[in-house]
Each structure stands twice: as C-alpha cells, then as structure tokens.
Amino acid sequence: MYRPKTTLEQWRILQAVVDHGGYAHAAAKLNKSQSSLNHAVAKLQSQLNVQLLEVKGRKAFLTEAGEVMLRRSRHLTQNVQELEFLAENINQDWEPEITVALDLAYPRELFYPALKAFHPQSRGSRLKIIDTVLTGTEEAITDGWADIVITGTVPKGYLGEPIAELYFIAVCHAEHPLAALPSPIDANELLHHLQLVIKDTSQSPNEKQGWLRSEQRWTVSHFNTAIELMLQGQGFCWLPTHTVEQHIVSGDLVKLEIQGSTFRKLVAWLVHPNPDTLGPGSKLLSELILAHRQIHNECAEREQRPEEN
C-alpha cells in the first residue's frame, strides 16, 4: 500500500509562502514562526528531491517544477477541504444530492437565475435536473423520487406554489395548408392533418390533457424536434409561446386561430413531494426559485397576454 511522503500541511505552507510573497508574510498570516515554515518547505523539497522554491533577496520564487507541483497541490487541498465540508454538511443534514423534476414547458430562463444564485451557497451538493412531461412530472410527485418538482398540475393531496403562467398555442409552418384556411379554423379541420405530440415521460402515460384527436400523430421527446419538423413543413403542434415566439416573429411559423380554443393557459407550480423531510439545500433552492418568480411576475404585468395580441 502506498504511503505518502508529504503532508497536506506542507503543501498548504508552500501555497501560503507563494501567495503571500515570502516566508515572513506567510508566517504572520498562518500565525507560525518563520523558521518553522522554512523547515517545512525544505523538508518537502528534500522528500520529493525537487527544488520548488528559490530565494532572491527577501522573496521566494517558484521554479518551473515548483509551478507545476503547486498547481496540482491546490487541487489536492481543495478536494480535501470539500471532502471535510461535505462531512460537515451531512452531519447538519445538508443533502449531498438534490433532485429537481422540471416540466419541459417551464421556461428555462426563469430557472437559470435561481441556479446561478444557488451555486455559491450549495455547499458542494450535487444537483440532478430531470426533464419531465405531463404524467411523468406528476409521477415525480406521487412517487416521491424528486426533492423539488416544477409542474403544470398539482396532484390531489399535495400543495404547490404558483410560479408562472404559461400559454400554449397551436402553430404550423407559414406554407402549411392549415395556415391558408380562414380564421377561426374549425377544429374538425385538424383531424385531417399530421399532429406533432410531445412524449409523456411517464412509464404509464395517461393522455388526459390537450387535443389528441388527429389520427395522424408523430410523437417526439422535445419541443425543439417538433419545431424543426414544422420548419420543414411537417404537421402542427401546440407549444409554449416562449419556444416559438422567435419563429412567429420571423414569419417561419404562424399561430393558428382555432374556433373555441386559440390557446391554452397553464399555471406552473413548485411542489415538494416530501415536505416533512425537505433538506436545507432544497429549501434554499426553492426560496431562490420563488424569489425569481416575483421578479418574473412583476415583468409579466407589463407584457401583453397572447389573447391581447
């Protein structure tokens, strides 16, 4: 079994000498005698049989070999620090891993600012973000496999906080036959055209949402795939406005005005499947998501809704 020749304390002393520009300043910073630092670095060089520092005047400078060794030593001491921090977090019930089930319809630009704010406070917790759709999102709640769920529906027996209002609209290519029909389009006209559907991520999907009457249906796993197909002239699809807005503005896709159902409104909710056992990391991330919800809602008040366009 390999036994290290050096200690972490020796590497920390070397780092301090370099970072503070010499033995005197490093000794004051570490509250140690200058002679003890000199001895520690000298012993480190002797054990490695490599010269790491050379003194010029009153300052110590790294050799080329010292630069390489110092850089690698920083990874070593950082890893040890994170390992000890993780042990402390576990003792304080801070979760080593947090799982978020994120409904595909929820705009990522609303979620990412919360992640950015969470990272420096995350204490090294790993974050697992799983894209889910429809029943698959509900199962993350009812099966309890996620710590935080952002969903379009709150199952019976659970509570949620509303965090955004989303709008789904029917769209197709500007040259698709449906785009040439006079508005509003009779919903029966849709029966004769290819419908693109986003795949439910559940193992046992329950098709209880949306218009699914077309006999010709292609199922895809992501909004981007549906958009790419429509840009090729294939089919129509109900999609969140934020995913197709730029293509509508460019004129590549058009919004279909359908009699009785121009758009669908969806409220996104933040749900804790197991609120009684929610860890401090999950609580912090939830608070940041809710904080950014307030920012979004203030902005949303100044924007027009789809039906007002």
Description:
This protein is of the alpha/beta class and 309 residues long. It has three domains: 84 residues, Winged helix-like DNA-binding domain superfamily/Winged helix DNA-binding domain (Arc Repressor Mutant, subunit A), CATH 1.10.10; 103 residues, 3-Layer(aba) Sandwich (D-Maltodextrin-Binding Protein, domain 2), CATH 3.40.190; 99 residues, 3-Layer(aba) Sandwich (D-Maltodextrin-Binding Protein, domain 2). The protein has nine helices and eleven strands. Strands 3, 4, 5, 6, 9, 10 and 11 form a seven-stranded mixed beta sheet that branches. α5 links the parallel β3 and β4. The longest helix is centred in the N-terminal third of the chain and has 28 residues. The termini are far apart. Belongs to the LysR transcriptional regulatory family. Pfam families: HTH_1 (PF00126), LysR_substrate (PF03466).
Task: List descriptors.
309 residues; alpha/beta; Arc Repressor Mutant, subunit A; D-Maltodextrin-Binding Protein, domain 2; 7-stranded mixed beta sheet; two-stranded antiparallel sheet; elongated
Rounded to an integer in angstroms, the radius of gyration calculated over CA atoms is 29 Å
Q: What is the strand content? A: 15-25%
Shape: elongated
Low-confidence stretches: 298-304
Main sheet, how many strands, which sense, barrel? 7 strands, mixed
In short:
The chain has 309 residues and is α/β, with parallel strands linked by helices. The chain contains nine helices and eleven strands.
